[in-house]
Amino acid sequence: MTTRLVLTALVGRTGAVLLRMRDEQSAVRANRWSLPGGPIRAGESPVGAAKRHIAEQARLAVDGEPALFWQGFLPGTRTDVYFFAVGTPAWNQDIVAEAGVVAEFVAGEDVLSGRAFTAASGFVLGRFLDSTEYLTLAGRFFPADPV
């Protein structure tokens, strides 16, 4: 049976990315950093699941619709991952505390610095941080004006 997951990178104006980590008491992925996300429900579209997980886990305002960055299977698994990205005007002081969860915006250049990630988040984050899509959301990519 195939498992379908959705992850969403919330990118702030400075390029910081929202990361979450459940504490050691969690029965699911304890002490692993991840992006907001989780399973896609039966009958739910991937973008609908992305919006639901943003609302349930992040509770932060976003700029527009989440855009699909990548979709595919994690190597060696039957896990089909949909990776979305969306900008947000939010910052650390806007994060609503949740028992057993650490959540913070981390500077893009520090995201991959020594953190242990869940398999799905870790697999896609490096590609995303090197992408034009990330640079655009972070306000660091300025394409040449068309002639």
Structural overview:
InterPro entries: NUDIX_hydrolase-like_dom_sf (IPR015797), NUDIX_hydrolase_dom (IPR000086). This is Nudix hydrolase domain-containing protein. It holds the Pfam family NUDIX. It comes from Catellatospora methionotrophica. The chain is α+β, with helices and mostly antiparallel strands. The protein has a single domain, classed as Nucleoside Triphosphate Pyrophosphohydrolase, CATH 3.90.79.10. The chain contains 3 helices and 7 strands, in the order E-E-E-E-H-E-E-E-H-H. It has helices at about 45-60, 120-130, 130-135; strands at about 5-10, 15-20, 35, 35-40, 65-75, 80-85, 100-105. A 4-stranded mixed sheet has the order 4-1-6-5, sandwiched between helices. It has a 3-stranded antiparallel sheet with strand order 3-2-7. Strand 5 (about 65-75) and strand 6 (about 80-85) form a beta hairpin. The longest helix is centred in the middle third of the chain and has 13 residues, at about 45-60.
Order of helices and strands: EEEEHEEEHH
**Overall CATH architecture:** Alpha-Beta Complex
Per CATH, the superfamily is Nucleoside Triphosphate Pyrophosphohydrolase
Strand element count: 7
Q: Radius of gyration, Cα only, in angstroms?
A: 15 Å
The CATH topology corresponds to: Nucleoside Triphosphate Pyrophosphohydrolase
| Overall pLDDT metric | 90
Helices and strands: which structural class? alpha+beta
Number of helices: 3
In this structure, how is the largest beta sheet organized? 4 strands, mixed
